[in-house]
């Protein structure tokens, strides 16, 4: 703590100053900053080597995920196109399963859809050899 030495007009002379003087702290921080700025380029010197020049090519691109929607009436949609029956769905999924890398299948089932219809979609994915099936849900509202 620091004490006030001089007197001001009409003030008590025995008051203790309770504020911290931050000027020395700022001075020290500025000196440390300057020292680090000067020494970093000296430390970062490395052994000079000639590195090979090579263009970077992506090795593998991620495939577009398949989104299947199941309505409460039991209709199945591939993106936004209706799939007429289970056999057509299996054939389309087999074509997708043959891709490398295999895309994921995301199922968006209506809240009021029958479980059996969604189960048939999962079974079609299994028959086609899809290795990853996800269900898309919404988080509950915050209260």
Automatic annotation (TrEMBL):
InterPro entries (alphabetical): ExbD
MF terms (GO), sorted A to Z: transmembrane transporter activity
Transmembrane segments: 25-43
Pfam families: ExbD (PF02472)
Major subcellular site: membrane
Gene3D superfamilies for this protein: 3.30.420.270
Keyword Transferase: no
A single Gene Ontology CC term: plasma membrane
Superkingdom, taxonomy of origin: Bacteria
Biological process (GO), any one: protein transport
Compartments in which it is found: Cell membrane
Record's signal peptide: none
Membrane topology: Single-pass membrane protein; Single-pass type II membrane protein
UniProt KW keywords: Cell membrane, Membrane, Protein transport, Transmembrane, Transmembrane helix, Transport
Similarity-based family: Belongs to the ExbD/TolR family.
Record-given protein name: Biopolymer transport protein ExbD
């Amino acid at each position: 703590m620091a004490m006030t030495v001089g007197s001001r007009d009409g003030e008590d002379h025995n008051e203790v100053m309770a504020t911290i003087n931050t000027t020395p702290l700022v001075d020290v921080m500025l000196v440390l900053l300057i020292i680090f700025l000067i020494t970093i380029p000296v430390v970062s010197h490395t052994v000079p080597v000639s590195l090979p020049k090579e263009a970077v090519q992506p090795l593998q691109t991620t495939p577009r995920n398949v989104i299947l929607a199941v309505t409460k009436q039991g209709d199945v949609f591939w993106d936004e196109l209706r799939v007429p029956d289970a056999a057509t769905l299996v054939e389309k999924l087999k074509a997708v399963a043959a891709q490398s890398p295999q895309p994921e299948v995301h199922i968006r089932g209506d809240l009021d859809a029958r479980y059996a219809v969604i189960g048939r979609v999962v079974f079609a994915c299994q028959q086609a050899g899809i290795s990853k099936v996800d269900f898309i849900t919404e988080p509950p509202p915050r209260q």
